[in-house]
Structures are given as C-alpha cells and as structure tokens.
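Case study.
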Amino acid sequence: MTGDAISHAVLPGIVIGFFVSGSQRGLEVIIGAGLLGILATLIINWLKNKAKVQLDASIGITFTLLFAIGIILINMLAYKVDLDQECVLYGEIAYLPIDLWITNAGFSMGPRIMYLAVLNLVLVIGFIILLYKELTLTSFDENFGLVIGLPAGAINLALMSMVSYTTVSSFEAVGAILVVALLVVPPATAFLWTKKLTSLIKLTCALGIFISIAGYYMAYLVDSSIAGMMVAVGGVIFLGSALYKSIKPNSLFGTSTPSKPLEI
Amino acid sequence: MITHVESPILEIHDLTVSYDQSPVLWNVDLSLPAGKLIGILGPNGAGKSTLIKAVMGLVPVTGGYVKIFDRELNDVRSRISYVPQRESVDWNFPASVLDVVMMGTYGKLGLFRRPGKKEKQIAMDCLDKVGMQSFVDRQISELSGGQQQRVFIARALAQEADLYLMDEPFAGVDMATETAIFQLLQEMTAAGKTVIVVHHDIHSAMNYFDWIIMLNLHLVASGPKTEVVTEDLLRKTYGGKLNLLTKVSDIIRQKDFNPLKS
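After joint prediction, the assembly is written out as follows.
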C-alpha cells in the first residue's frame, strides 16, 4: 500500500516542482515529487512508531492529506495551465511517442520518458543486487537487523526512496492508477504461486511484462484505454489465480510441501 | 535477594523502562556471571521481554544503563545473539529455512558482502544442532510453531556469539524438543558461553538453570538457583495468585527431592 500512498502523496511535490521550473517536464518536478514521496514515507513511519497510529490508518491519513494539499495548490495556482488531476491520476501512455527527447541539434532520441524508465530500471536492479541480503533481512525481521548492527532504518528509508522514485518516474507516463496496479498486482499474483523469494521476483517481472504487452494489444484490438486494459488484464490474472488456488490449494509451483507427513 | 558478581558479563544498573509514561520496569539493578545458563522468571506482564529488549537496545530506556562485557552495546554487537519471540515476525515471508538461518551470519559479513560457502556451512551445522537439517529447503511458511522456534534458535547459533538472549524460546515447543534444546544450551554454557532465557515453566526452570532472575516490574531476586528459589521469593514474584501459590509450594516440596541439588 505504500506505493499507492506515495503515488498520491507526490502531487504537491509535482505542483511545486512545476512552479519552480515552469514546465511539466522539468527535472524539478521529479525532484519535488521524489522529496514528497520520501516525506510521505517518513510521516507514515512517524505516525506508526511514535504516535502509535495503526499502519493502514497512518497510510490513509498521510496520502489523502498530501493529495488534498496538491489539489488545493493546483486549484489556487494552476487552474489556467494544463496540469490537472485527471492527467496526473490516469496519465496517457498513448501520448508517449509524441513526447520526444530532441537534442539541441534537432536530432530525435526517441521518447523522453523511455530514458527515465531505463535509468530507473538500472538503479533498481543495482539496488537489489547490492543490498539483496540486507533487504531480505530487514523486510523479514527488522529488529534482528538492528540487533546485529545493520542500519535497518537507513535500509528501509532507501527502499522507500526507491519505491518513491520508481512511482514518480513512471506515473508521468502511465498515471497513478496503473503504477499502483503494476506495483501491487504482479507480486500479489506471484505470491499465490510461489513462496520462494527468487522465483517470486522472477515471476513478478515476467507477469509485469506480460500484463503490459497483453494489455497494450488488447486495448489496440478493441480501441480502448491502454492503461485501463493493462489493469484489467492484471486483475483478471490475479482473480483467476486466486480462484484456482482456492479450488486446488495444494497445486505446486515452486513450493516444497512433501506428500509424506511432516517429521517432528 | 540480589547477588552481585565480580567482573560481570552483563551489568544492568538502575534500569527503568516505560511505555507511554507508565513504567514497566522499575530500577532493575543486577549483574550476571559468565558461562551460566540464566533464566528470567515472572508472571505475564512482569517485563521479562522488555528487560531483554532493553539490553538489546530495542526499546528506549528511561533511566539507568546496560553494560555488556563491561562495554557499550554498540561495541560488542557481534558478540551478542538474540532470539526474538516467534510472533514478532510474519512467517508467510517468502524465505527458506536456510535463508533465515543464514541471516545469523550477516552481522559478521557486514554490508554489501554476499554470504558464501563458509556461511552456508555454519548455517547447516546450526540446523544440525537443533535437529532441523532435513528441513533446509523448506519454506518457513510450511513449518509448525515448534519448528519455527528451532529455526530461530539455529539463526541465533549461527551468529557464533558469546552471549545469547532468548525471548521465550520454548513457547509452543514439545517436551522432547525442549529437553533437547536445554541440553544444547547446557553444552554451550559448558563451553563458556552465557545464555539468558525468558522462561515460563517453573518446573523445568528448576531443573536446568544455574542462575535465576525473578522479575515482577521490580527485580525480586537474582542469584544462584539454590539460593533464590524459596517460597518467600516465589510468592513475591507471582503475587497473591492462590492457584499458583499451591503450585509453588508443590515445587518447593519437589525441590527437596531435586536430584541436581544432591
């Protein structure tokens, strides 16, 4: 749910970034949104740990408050320009080919957002490879991480910052709803099929790619919203898996339940 | 009755811990000898887990200090091992038994370095010690409560520490396993390690521990088993719970027949 929260909470950062840079595309927008994402994470953690608010409540309060501030800012300052909630919330993946990165010499380098996405991919892969064992440990048992002297707080903050950055850099292209769907649906589906971390990660990536491609071509086929179709494909796959699992709970794929009774 | 020792392995000085203004531990002052199997006894809500968490720096301390090996906690983290309560983590987490036990070696590995053959060997040895070697590749979501507990103990062993703090390691563990693990802990203390265990069952505590700490918000007693297990101190620890008191006098009676006392 943190992804959901962050994707909404970054709105004021985008608005402020927009006013600093004067354009929707500036680096300031991404920095502003990134900072707000981290701020949202910090507020959520603070509410949970220090003010003893339940996690779901603290997430709900934080992101609705920040999102509301963002909407107020838009209405106060930016009602005349092209920066509305719709475009932030839903994005439009079909416009990507128009939004090109054109060098000063006038040479087109292809869709601008693609470079952001590639940079994001490289950073995330690097982050996971470098800190795989630390991330696993702190996600499983944060206190144990603290006890053996790992900087568990810093690692968690770094993870949240990566989520925040990923959300921000992708939702300009695909909109907040699709970002959240792609953050939540593939891992949730994969978790129904496997309980092994490495296969979980692989299956999640494969599902994400499959959902994007299938959603895109199905939207093309019926001439409808691409983002909407991608979310729909993801939802159908998830529901199908959940349904299958509830009927045949023991069908195997990556787990290791033995057929013989457990020893002590 | 609080016995202090010379050059203690763990020294707790005037420790007070409070949650939301209300103190859960008052002025606990004790020192513990090295190489002993030490039990922390007390009723529910007596602050047993809080004491261990305060020693590990997991809860903020309102007053007093803790010294381990006569040094600050941060200087000696690699020499201390910790078994948290089983309920403190989500056992649906996608990890195998081996993954979890290997986590015990991460402290010595440090940041960025990946665990290799040596770490895997340590983890396998530790699983062997708790009798879980045949579960190496099992996912932790597929374990019973007692097996989860043994995985946590194996992870603590993999830290290869000198001081072990265990928070209710026998909750949900059957008698046979409990006996086996107590024997393992006794072997460890014989090899010079110090093991501190939060424990519920007074009967088995009588059998296995060398040193007993009795806690009920205040420190009631800390000393060698033979000196502190008296009716008076048990009554102080467990309060006026009549049902328990009869049980306690049973234990006192049993104590006279205790073969370990000889």
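Observations recorded in class. The CA atoms of residues 100 and 111 of chain A lie 4 Å apart. Confidence is low (pLDDT under 50) at residues 253-264 of chain A. We will return to this complex in the next lecture.
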